[in-house]
Write the structure tokens for this entry.
Amino acid sequence: EADIYQTPRYLVIGTGKKITLECSQTMGHDKMYWYQQDPGMELHLIHYSYGVNSTEKGDLSSESTVSRIRTEHFPLTLESARPSHTSQYLCASSEWGGFNSPLHFGNGTRLTVT
Amino acid sequence: GEDVEQSLFLSVREGDSSVINCTYTDSSSTYLYWYKQEPGAGLQLLTYIFSNMDMKQDQRLTVLLNKKDKHLSLRIADTQTGDSAIYFCAERREDGGSQGNLIFGKGTKLSVKP
């Protein structure tokens, strides 16, 4: 069983609020990811990190930002939430190095911006 | 093209076999994965196959890989109602553009009727 945790599970906020979605893993994985999952199920990689102090943008442009100050923690921040940010956000981690490094996912945060 | 392709829906009767198909794009892909997502949850790794293998079996799950046609399939024997979920195919590409990240299909929603 993978140990990766996301909080909150559900969040409903008003437009213009600043929010931070938390993601922590206890496996010592170097690589971490944020995916946005739209209602049509498709997953879009929005951010990833190779390790501490590393952050990279993913395939889908996002107004969110991330930080990686500690190995186990990879929070995602929206400075000013908008209804278009309504989505499910999934955090994942994997070992760095080697070809077979499957992703381990958290249970996700479902964000609704009103 | 760039996409990993899957059919979006599959409906089967309990006790039948389910076959979920996927086509991928990059002949240099090293590992191919199947993930399962239950409602309200993150993705759970089901199984994976290395690209030099043709088949892998794990209890009720059989993965078949046709590297020539870039076709991957997941067969679930004796499908149960608990198998109802979304199934994602993913490939790990080793080209520089994707930085070894996984490329996901859009997911196949499996519905199992009693």
About this structure: Chain B has a mean pLDDT of 89. The interface with chain A takes residues 8, 30-31, 33, 35, 37, 40-45, 48, 50, 86, 88, 92, 94, 99, 101-102, 104, 106-107, 109 of chain B (CB under 8 Å). The longest strand of chain B covers residues 43-50.
